[in-house]
């Protein structure tokens, strides 16, 4: 690709003849954009080029003269890359193929070879295809997630609707509802009656009848380390002792500190 107004390096430009220099010398001129040379057009014989000539932009002196005479209407305000990219995107959006005439026309407009333009167009086409494929994949992923979420919500709704019925059907006395709507429940390994029987059996075997002990001693004391009810939750222990109270086999006492449940006492009867 030949050097033009966009690719010419700063070192190769004479400061006195640069566009910036012209603007300083002639502030009334707006000549900061390149101007295609009408005498050295795309595809015409050229003494400067070896092989096919893709056209040239006016040199600084000629550019200044041309702009002063004709104005800036013929100046190139959009870089060649952006022009090719815009044309290629338009074709992709319309899903149209490029013809040889269209290739030549865009090449003449941007003063680039057909090979250079073809590379840009292919690049834009591949990028567009990848973006379309990515957008399609993202849409499919979102749709799949939405279907999964809808199915999950539906399953949860069905489960919650039938939860109470299923639990009641399997209730063997070890389930206790936490709320009236029957959406939360306690599932107990043993029923309060079963725990009460184990505790009272230990009381009898250890001669604890007609004596008082604390609930902490029952659930975490040294004497109950090897018992099944060791470490039992406080709420379950109180339920079990309530069963013994109802049968006249125990009586619970309030703790000195109402906030300390472990200080609650219980007396067992024979």
TrEMBL record:
Iron listed as a keyword: no
Family matches, as InterPro entries: ESCRT-II_cplx_Vps25-sub, WH-like_DNA-bd_sf, WH_DNA-bd_sf
Q: Which GO terms describe its molecular function?
A: protein homodimerization activity; structural molecule activity
Give the superkingdom in one word: Eukaryota
List each coiled-coil range.
none
Please name the Pfam families in this protein's record: ESCRT-II
Keyword check for Protein transport, yes or no.
yes
Query: Its Gene Ontology biological processes?
Result: macroautophagy; protein transport to vacuole involved in ubiquitin-dependent protein catabolic process via the multivesicular body sorting pathway
Q: Which UniProt keywords apply?
A: Protein transport, Transport
Its GO CC terms are: ESCRT II complex
* PANTHER family tied to this protein: VACUOLAR PROTEIN SORTING-ASSOCIATED PROTEIN VPS25 (PTHR13149), VACUOLAR PROTEIN-SORTING-ASSOCIATED PROTEIN 25 (PTHR13149:SF0)
Indicate the family of this protein: Belongs to the VPS25 family.
What's this protein's name?
Vacuolar protein-sorting-associated protein 25
User: Per the UniProt entry, what species is this protein from, by scientific name?
Assistant: Desmophyllum pertusum
